[in-house]
Design brief:
It is built from 8 helices and 5 strands; from the N terminus they run βαβααβααβααβα. By secondary structure, the protein is of the alpha/beta class. The protein has a single domain (3-215), classed as Rossmann fold (3-Layer(aba) Sandwich), CATH 3.40.50.300. Strands 2-3-1-4-5 form a 5-stranded parallel sheet, sandwiched between helices. The longest helix is centred in the middle third of the chain and has 25 residues, at 69-93.
Length: 217
């Protein structure tokens, strides 16, 4: 029997503040998983599919107060629906490993950061319109001031710095929100110390992922 006939898909998400190095680590992990013979689909949010990429520009560019948190939540959910329908579910159905740079935990953290009742809205929309949870989520954690500096240097040239414009205090609360998500779902979430050297972080990522990938073959 061909390997593809007895493997099922695996859905892995990378989360955390911008500037923590998660995007680079996702690329490194994808290369390492491909070396094992598995198909890997690398994607991101907001975006990942043509329609979702159009919505991405509305969300990550412009004035920080461009949208209310409730409107942001709706836009993220619409983009995610397109992403899941067109990219994530088809890849999982054919047995691929999907690695997404951000997913619903980012919506939970960013849009409910100062109003816990909005977490109810995020979760209800996710259940109604998406209905797909990751098998494993890696949450990259580091000093938010360091992460903000790194993110600002990188994103200012691309104009995708709308959330970074919200400032240091927002980033500190965002870090706390991600850590709270990890604490609430320890079976799904693993916190990665992103302040370590990149090769150390990559080893920690592989340690968290490898045995779970082996379990789904």
């Amino acid at each position: 029997m061909a390997a593809q006939e007895h493997e099922r898909g695996f859905f892995l998400t990378f989360e955390g503040n911008d500037g923590t190095g998660k995007s680079s680590q996702a690329q490194m992990l994808a290369a390492r998983v491909r070396a094992t013979g598995r198909e890997v689909v690398e994607t991101r949010e907001p975006g990942g599919a043509p329609g979702a990429e159009e919505i991405r520009r509305l969300l990550v560019e412009g004035d920080p107060e461009r949208w209310s948190p409730e409107t942001e939540t709706l836009l993220f959910t619409v983009a995610r629906r397109d992403h899941v329908e067109r990219v994530i579910r088809p890849a999982l159905d054919r047995g691929a490993v999907v690695i997404s740079d951000r997913y619903v935990d980012s919506t939970r953290a960013y849009q409910a950061i100062d109003a816990p009742e909005r977490r109810v809205l995020v979760d209800r929309l996710h259940d109604l319109a998406i209905g797909l949870d990751p098998d494993l989520t890696l949450i990259f954690d580091m000093d938010p001031a360091v992460a903000l500096k790194r993110a600002s240097d990188r994103l200012s040239a691309s104009h995708e710095d709308r959330f970074e414009k919200k400032g240091a205090e927002f980033q500190t609360r965002l870090r706390a929100a991600f850590l709270a998500i990890a604490a609430a779902e320890p079976g799904r979430c693993v916190v990665i110390d992103a302040a370590d050297p990149p090769e150390t972080v990559a080893a920690e990522v592989w340690a968290a992922v490898a045995h779970r990938l082996g379990a789904v073959r």
